[in-house]
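Chapter review: from sequence to fold.
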Amino acid sequence: MKRELGYGLDALRNRSALKLALWSIPEILPTAIYGVAVARATDSFLAGHAWQGIAWLGGLVVTACLGAAGAHQVYGRLGELVEPLRDDLVRRVVGTAVRTGDPAAVARLNRQVEIVRDTFAGLVLVVRSFAVTLVGVLAGLLSLAPAIAGFVLPPFLLGFLASLAVLGLAADRVRASLQADEDLATTAGMTFSGVRDITATGTEEFAEHLTGRPIEAQAAAERALARVAALRTVCFAIGGWAPLLILLAAGPWLVGRGVSTGTLLGGLTYVLVGLQPALNTVMSALGDSGLRYVVTLSRILSVQPVPDRSRRTETPPESSIRTHGLTFAYGPAAEPVIDGLDLTVAEGEHLAVVGPSGIGKSTLAGLICGMLEPTDGQVLIGGVPASDVSPQTRALIPQEAYVFSATVMENLNYLLPDASASEVQQAIDAVGSGALVDRLGGLQAQVKPNDLSAGERQLIALTRAYLSPAPLVVLDEATCFLDPDAERRAEEAFATRGGTLVVIAHRISSAQRARKILVMDGNRATLGTHTSLLSSSPLYQELQGHWQPSESLQIQPAS
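The token string follows.
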């Protein structure tokens, strides 16, 4: 908790926080004077001095206007204080999500960051208002009648301290609520993304059961959190109502010792108008928003960014690929997409991976490139685990190629910033993107990604990968939007580039150009050449029979 409170205090250590504190000072004046004004006005009216009583009430109105002006400035300073905190949290969450792929980051970014932002702003206002009220009431009571302060302040402070003790009891329940919220977001996101597969396989009942458990857990956590409100009610009764009852009970005794009726009424005013609302507000804020602030911020700060692997991971001496017992499933209860795969791709070899849609080809590409962690088994790149290999060792080009708003040159040399002009031109000529570069206006022309077709974006991404220093290149249907001739030129360029090439093929022609072909068929995988697979693999024969020179493979998995 100290770390989270310290994080909030760091946000307060700036000029905006100082301005907010200074503009709070005018609000102390009306808080301190309204009890005195009521007391003096009441005594004046009872003594027949009506104009004197009216003057006291008029002074109260003037001070209230000064306090309102200060409050207006406080709200203006609040945005300057809160928004930098939110921006810093967003950078933390997004940076961590980019490096880890944590699905819970969606809940953190969409809900938890906003919880911290809103509750921090509310806490600043509430604590500031509580401090202003307490200082003002204390000053007013001491100037009015110190004896009244002796009856009012002890039970008030006791109730406030008891409410702080309740916070510790509620912390675990708030943590459970936030954990249930993350679990629900993760499960729901996984279920929604697989709606098509769930419908196709008739597993709606299982999906409903899978999603129902985190929903029930979240509801139970919220109900447990709501029960904490009963304890806060007891604390408020001690700190808010007990001072009032004690002062009323002690009224005759105080009057008998010279306390005027107006003074007693002024003391009651301080309790009813000042201390009681302030205690109710601060208890509600600390018991609800404050606790959520601490716990939510602790969850955001507890997710540590992954260290930069490029500084500490190994660069293997070669780019060979070897898998042993490789197994991967999308969830603990899911059937494995890849089950016990043993595969060896030698340094400098060209492998094509073919199979029906949804059979796990892209999953294999993600495992090779270290984007997915195996459920079992391992992937070795040059003898080094794929998750520990330096990012510069591999280049993955997916089906949806990434192009960003910058110059053509900046898009092409992104993975090799110090590439010479001749190296860039050689990559352009090899891949066959020269006509596209000319159409865009040359290497210094600005690229507008939305103005490019899917095939044009693929050409830029392919040229970028060809120019990169990565000895291992994985093309995951990276040429699917190119015509057969452009695809052939690009794949032949990578085959003669040097290093190891893995092509997730969408046309059988891509497989025919490879030295080795991996046919994925359910949980079975067959490795061979085009000639050997024609005689040994029924699925490969089926793919060959369905292939048309300008068509992609659209074979559905066998039932």
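Two observations follow directly from the output. The longest strand covers residues 321-328. Confidence is low (pLDDT under 50) at residues 1-13, 304-312, 548-559.
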